[in-house]
Design brief:
Blueprint lengths: L2 E6 L3 H4 L6 E6 L9 E9 L4 E12 L2 E12 L8 E13 L3 E15 L6 E2 L8 E2 L15 E18 L2 E18 L12 E3 L8 E22 L2 E25 L3 E3 L8 E27 L3 E18 L5 E21 L2 E12 L19 E15 L2 E19 L2 E23 L4 E14 L2 E5 L6 E10 L4 E10 L2 E2 L10 E2 L2 E11 L4 E8 L7 E6 L2 E4 L4 E9 L1
Antiparallel strand pairs: 1-2, 3-4, 3-33, 4-5, 5-6, 6-7, 7-10, 8-9, 10-11, 11-13, 12-15, 13-14, 14-16, 16-17, 17-18, 18-19, 19-20, 20-21, 21-22, 22-23, 23-24, 23-25, 25-26, 26-29, 27-28, 29-30, 30-33, 31-32
Length: about 575
């Protein structure tokens, strides 16, 4: 990966239908005309996990180049029975045709690992929130040898970029992906009955399951970018079209346990037998999108961004269990975006924005629709934001953002059945984010941020959204003593949060935590860099996040990773 881009808030105009909180976009390394370059990396940590990676770039001729990236990871951590491996390879060929550039790449990924949903909760005082159970940081609440997930993916991508005129650029990307995935999961289905009591692995409608999925994707996207001045007004106009076709086959089998509980006083893992198919769906998703955006510059101090995207999303399929049940739904949505950027001086920007996004009822996997979902409109996300950026110096900046995110037709995982979702209506998340990034001195780099969020069901202050801590703070420092040696020190602070949407007084609450991390950096020469990272330097016990009320991730104890990077 060349770099990682984090986009916050609804992103429909750029990426189409999707979630509201944002998206992480990876930018692939591309071949270059530089002379032959060989790069490599290897690392190992105190849990026994290790990985190696290689990066080779070589010119083929005066206008063509080839790049190969590959990596292998052996997975391990502090949790009992966890393990796995992941390997990937990515050959990439590129040619410069003058005004046109062509790239063709293939990516193969194979990932096989243990699925670990963490630890359950335990009741405290009557009428008070449950808390994560302690004393079982390393205990596995699944079935060894059964909890596994695997993915094998083949992805082919072609991209053509060209300059049609001096101020008009065109690009087209074609992607074909073939994915084969399986997921087999046994997990805590209820709170522990006591510190040395029992934990249910099946309860109510929650049962173990195995779920293989095969999917084939084809996506085509084409963009025109036109820089044009109309008098004294500058315009950067984006016009785009996108087409996608996705075929999916998804099966599901529920499991029957030899014992539905684990006895914490003497843990003996049960066996599981998976029965007949309870879901066998074949589905096709097609979407067509058209979008336009104009960034209008009124002189040097005022920019206005106006955009509109049209999406037509159509899903058709059939559940073949018993009497086949066909399902289908078509949604057509327009997602607007408008922003105002004011620059009172060159190093200060003040902005405001309004944007919308939507998520079809078939969810992010887009392979099935329940009879209820089939009649429901998509989730809608509306985001309002006001912010500022101040470049104190070219290498030091401060950012501030105030935001409000409204969701309608909202859904959330069902606290009583982790394999289902429930409709909760309208929610609102309000917050503020402050960031500082850059060099305090030539030797001292700092990156930090603070976020406050208040997320609740509209019209009912009691119902709070899960996985939204009110306060989050992170600060990382790096100090270079000289050209060869540097050190890093950081802290992460997170206030308490509900593990799932709070629907009762006993909804599980994860306690606040503070974690300290550190690092040492050593540059031996132009070809070799060494690095040691220490996570959780003070060895604090904490819970980082959760999947629901009783699948809670315990943070790792103190651990270190040694990394070596080489370049020739």
């Amino acid at each position: 990966i060349e770099r990682v881009e984090i986009l916050k808030g609804p992103f429909a105009l750029i990426f189409g239908r999707g979630g509201s909180g944002g998206i992480i976009n990876r930018v692939q390394k591309t071949p270059s005309a530089d002379p032959l370059v060989l790069g490599g990396m290897a690392s190992v940590n105190t849990f026994g996990a290790w990985d190696v990676a290689a990066d080779i770039n070589t010119p083929i001729s005066g206008n063509a180049a080839f790049r190969l990236n590959a990596n292998y990871e052996s997975l391990d951590n502090h949790r009992n029975f966890f393990g796995g491996e992941r390997f990937a390879i990515n050959p990439y060929f590129a040619v410069d045709l003058g005004q046109w550039k062509l790239g063709l790449s293939y990516e193969y990924v194979n990932d096989d690992r243990v699925i670990d949903r963490g630890v359950p909760s335990i009741a405290t005082a009557a009428g008070q929130p449950n808390t994560p159970i302690t004393g079982y940081r390393d205990t596995f609440f699944g079935i060894p040898g059964v909890n596994r997930a695997g993915l094998e993916a083949h992805i082919v991508k072609a991209r053509l970029d060209g300059q049609l005129t001096e101020n008009l650029n065109w690009s087209t990307t074609l992607l074909y992906g073939d994915y084969d995935k399986f997921y087999t999961n046994v997990f805590a289905a209820a709170a522990a009955t006591g510190q040395t009591g029992t934990v249910a692995l099946a309860s109510g409608g929650t049962v173990p399951y195995t779920e293989p999925t095969q999917r084939k994707n084809f996506i085509a996207q084409s963009n025109l970018v036109w820089d044009v001045n109309l008098g004294s007004i500058g315009n950067k106009i984006l016009l785009g079209l996108e087409y996608g076709d996705q075929d999916t086959v998804n099966n599901r089998r529920n499991g029957v346990l030899s014992s539905n509980t684990l006895n914490l006083a003497n843990i003996v893992y049960p066996t599981v037998t998976f029965g007949a198919l309870v879901r066998n769906t074949q589905s096709n998703v097609r979407f067509v999108s058209a979008y336009a955006q104009d960034q209008i510059s009124f002189g040097e101090h005022v920019d206005v961004v106006v955009g509109l995207r049209y999406d037509r999303f159509e899903i058709k399929g059939s559940d073949l269990i018993g009497t086949p049940r066909p399902f289908a739904r078509t949604d057509e949505k327009v997602s607007p975006r408008i922003g105002l950027i004011v620059k009172p001086q060159e190093n200060i920007s003040i902005y405001s924005s309004y944007s919308q996004s939507f998520l079809p009822r078939s969810g992010e996997q887009f392979f099935t629709l329940t009879p209820t979902q089939q009649n429901l409109a998509p989730e809608k996300f509306t985001n309002y934001e006001l912010g500022a950026k101040w470049d104190i110096r070219p290498d030091l900046n401060v950012t501030l953002a105030l935001f409000q995110l409204d969701r309608t037709n909202a859904t959330t995982p069902d606290p009583a059945n982790v394999t289902a979702t429930i409709n909760i209506g309208e929610t609102r998340t309000k917050g503020i984010e402050l960031g500082l990034t850059g060099r305090i001195t030539p030797q001292w780099q700092m990156s930090g941020g603070y976020t406050y969020q208040d997320a609740q069901l509209r019209g009912n202050d009691f119902v709070r959204l899960g996985q939204v801590p009110k306060h989050q703070f992170a600060l990382w420092n790096r100090y270079d003593f000289n050209d060869s040696v540097g050190a890093g020190l950081g802290v992460v602070r997170q206030s308490s949060q509900f593990a799932a949407i709070r629907t009762s007084a006993t909804t599980t609450r994860l306690p606040a935590f503070t974690r300290v991390d550190a690092a040492l950096f050593f540059t031996a020469n132009e070809r070799l860099e060494l690095q040691i990272n220490v996570e959780n330097l003070l060895d604090k016990a904490y819970f980082s996040d959760s999947h629901n009320n009783n699948n809670i991730t315990p943070g790792a104890p103190i651990n270190a990773r040694f990394t070596a990077r080489m370049k020739f």
